[in-house]
Design goal:
two-stranded antiparallel ribbon; 3% strand; mainly alpha; 13 helices; ABC transporter involved in vitamin B12 uptake, BtuC; 329 residues
Length: 329
């Protein structure tokens, strides 16, 4: 199955159109300071959305990613303190990735071994992580090491090095997804797990890796959330629904088996652009949530329109059922 280019085209047009409109009314939009702020602000959502795309490709959801990012920020306030320096920052950073890895394995266990629906399993994980974050930090405290945060946002001109890296990652991931046998296996599991299992594919392992990768990407996004707030806050992190929205706008199917990592990146950048533009027009941030919801509904209808049209045409071509004759006598 080939990937539709419609999501890529739509997201590109929307990004450029919104940027042109903002620049026409506020010249500060295309300033280096604002563009740098936009790309840095987009990094947490881009990373967690790429992970969410993995879960959607196998036909699942992970609503615990936002709470996981919060947990990583809280963890960073203990392991990446201002007094930590040099080599000691390495195990402190690995602790955050370890939290993501453990969360992914736990989610995969609930989904594959206990056979819980992914949305139910990750809702439970969400509650556990929220409680743990509040237990460790009942209120925002504990500054995060500025050397780490400075390294995360460093770049050339207004473009962070990390953003260039994540763009290359998304492109390579799309090539892998649609041009390799392992990528085909991942999409096949999302399309029909039962048939994939009968064909000898490692369905269970594929789903496990997808959810582990989703959580690990969320923990890496936690680094950038920590760089943004620079303190161990237990009350931040609202990217769960936004990450699903970005993956869907980027072309992912809620039924699994279809999606694009680069499309997801563009969608996450566009959603961040909305949040970046609204303050320039002195509009309430609630408009961003309303816009995102409307766009997701529009995308679902627009992206699935070929399938809907095909079903309607098939129904019209189907000959009418012939009524059975009544028995004689």
């Amino acid at each position: 199955m080939k990937y539709s280019r419609l999501p890529l085209a739509l997201m590109t047009v929307l990004i450029l159109a919104l940027g042109a409109y903002a620049e026409a009314h506020h010249s500060a939009f295309l300033g280096k300071l604002n563009l740098n702020s936009l790309l840095i602000q987009a990094m947490p959502l881009v990373l967690v959305s790429l992970g969410q795309a993995c879960a959607l490709l196998v036909g699942g959801f992970d609503v615990s990613v936002a709470a996981l990012m919060t947990m990583c920020v809280v963890t960073a306030s203990f392991t990446l303190t201002p007094t930590t320096s040099g080599v000691a920052l390495v195990p402190g950073s690995l602790a955050l990735v370890g939290v993501g890895l453990a969360t992914g394995v736990f989610n995969a266990f609930l989904i594959r071994v206990l056979r819980l629906p992914s949305i139910v399993a990750t809702l439970g994980t969400l509650s556990i992580l929220e409680g743990a974050s509040l237990l460790l930090r009942s209120f925002p405290e504990g500054p995060v090491n500025t050397d780490v945060t400075s390294a995360l946002i460093s770049g050339v001109s207004f473009v962070p090095y990390a953003f260039v890296g994540v763009v290359l990652l998304a492109v390579v991931a799309d090539v892998w997804l649609y041009r390799t046998r392992t990528g085909l296996a991942l999409r096949a599991v999302g399309l029909d797990a039962t048939s994939s299992r009968r064909l000898g594919m490692a369905t269970g392992r594929t789903i496990l890796l997808a959810f582990v990768l989703c959580s690990v990407m969320a923990s890496i996004a936690g680094f950038y959330l920590a760089a943004e707030v620079q303190i161990g806050s237990p009350i931040i992190g609202n990217q769960a629904l936004e990450s699903i929205a970005a993956a869907v706008l980027g072309g992912a199917s809620l039924a699994g088996g279809k999606g694009s990592f680069f499309g997801t990146l563009l969608a996450a950048l566009f959603l961040t652009e909305i949040s970046n533009v609204l303050p320039l027009f002195q509009q309430p941030t609630e408009y961003a949530d309303m816009t995102i919801g409307a766009l997701v509904l529009l995308a679902l209808v627009l992206y699935q329109s070929p399938e809907l049209v095909a079903r309607i045409r098939a129904a019209r071509r189907r000959p009418p059922a012939v009524p059975a004759e009544a028995p004689a006598g």
